Amino acid sequence: MYDFHIHSDFSVDCKYLMEEMVQSAVEKGIKSICFTDHIDYDLSGDGINFEFRPVDYFKKINQMKYKYMGQIEILSGVEIGMQPHLVQRYNGLIDNHPFDFVIMSIHSIDKKDIYIDQFTRGKKPMEALNIYYDYLYNCLEKFDNYDVVGHIDYIDRYFEDFSLIPDFKEYSSNIENILKIIIEKGKGLEVNTAGMRYKLGYYNPKAEILKLYKELGGEIVTIGSDAHNPEHIGYHYREAEKMLRDLGFKYTYIYRDRKKVPIHIN
Ligand SMILES: [Zn+2]
Ligand SMILES: [Zn+2]
Description:
Elements: E1 2-6, H1 18-27, E2 32-39, H2 54-67, E3 73-81, H3 87-95, E4 101-105, E5 108-109, E6 112-113, H4 125-142, E7 148-149, H5 172-184, E8 188-192, H6 194-197, H7 207-215, E9 221-224, H8 237-246, E10 251-256, E11 259-264
Helix pairs in contact: 4-5
The structure holds zinc ion (2 copies).
One zinc ion binds near residues 79, 105, 107 and 150.
């Protein structure tokens, strides 16, 4: 098992030490984990600071690597909250630090956090989806310094009532354009198993998106639990792998030093 989306107390929304996360992963027999703590620049969300100091982060990860050597592989990643005006700033961060893996997520729109500022409230469901996916498309056109797009249909989690989420057919053309640009640029999609914990009843992306991605020629997928506590590490890994196999994927991928490595799905 591998888990390529894990948080620690370097993320403001996680209170567990890196070491607690590592110990849980070791107990669960996971081969490699990648910490992907949050950096979300320029976020108005209630004054909460979703950033860490890279120097402290790498120091701690290196300590963990040394201490747990031979028991588990520990990699250093980051989950960035992208907004179009932050391209240069994120390039600076990523080019100047030895990250193994970069997840690009959309957590906010025009400096407003989707969750904290209740982005979907007061909008018609299709209007909210269109704004979100146009925003993502705009980021994808401008920015290339990432490996996978995180939880691509994240917006679904923040509908007050999940029954309001429009049918996939109503916005599949938006998604198709997004997937094409991801594929063209040689990037991948993350399968984020936390969707199941949000009671959505599916992973993010949902199977329809993964199916379309495969049909369009997309091959690169990673699996991550988005664990913010030790018990969720490796959450639904086998089930996600099985779903991918059923959809025709032969490999999932992990990343070291920003280079992808295929893992055969058994
Ligand atoms: Zn995220
Ligand atoms: Zn995350």
